[in-house]
Target: protein-serine/threonine phosphatase
Amino acid sequence: MGAFLDKPKMEKHNAQGQGNGLRYGLSSMQGWRVEMEDAHTAVIGLPSGLESWSFFAVYDGHAGSQVAKYCCEHLLDHITNNQDFKGSSGAPSVENRVNGSLAVSRALGDFDYKCVHGKGPTEQLVSPEPEVHDIERSEEDDQFIILACDGIWDVMGNEELCDFVRSRLEVTDDLEKVCNEVVDTCLYKGSRDNMSVILICFPNAPKVSPEAVKKEAELDKYLECRVEEIIKKQGEGVPDLVHVMRTLASENIPSLPPGGELASKRNVIEAVYNRLNPYKNDDTVSSILAPSAFSSPPL
Model:
């Protein structure tokens, strides 16, 4: 699973594109892990007569990045040349994890789960054959698809993330920015894993709403004022950012983004705090979000 760094690597890799009636954006961040083990693929318009098809994938590496990178380079070609993939699983799971550890029942690699003598590759605890679902599209109902790794899903549920993304699409049409907000929010919610997310928007995706943009600006202004008030109330010296965040977390703040809540506004709060704090240091993120402190309530 990998060890932790002293402070998270928050630099992001971004990309976006459009075609075939789709728009997509993606963001990936190493976070607390000592290595970036995730990889991804985003291709609009496939070769060999499949120009109207698109392919998106997030590969969540385990115990290294080699398999994820290999899949990124070769899986699409393998699929287009062999289109009869089928899979079934008899794998036991404990709290949605195989043997209480691995979060997936399909994987390339993870040979510790494939060492039962006398059983074939697809009969092991973890199978290399994919589970394939063919879902009919609904132009009226479908808005977007989110592909993400464990670093996202460990701290946000399906509905939470959909609600958050929907709220972000109402304030910006920049899909890279939306994806960046997702990974930042998951980091601030306590994710200790690599984080990768691809957002694919259909024509019926939410559009920017002037009313939502106005409410977002009002929320940011409110948070700025509250941070200033909390710092001034301290009197001498400046309270640390942990105190500021915990104070805000104890309040009933209106109009916070659904799913993201206060964590999704951490960058706004920190920017104001740093502007008003002459004693700031570069280890603020590290001291607040260190893995050893993850048992505390999320900030």
Remarks:
- The longest helix spans residues 210-233.
- Residues 85-111, 292-298 have pLDDT under 50 and may be disordered.
- The chain is about 30% helix and 20% strand.
- Helices lie at 66-81, 150-153, 158-169, 175-188, 210-233, 241-249, 266-276, 284-289.
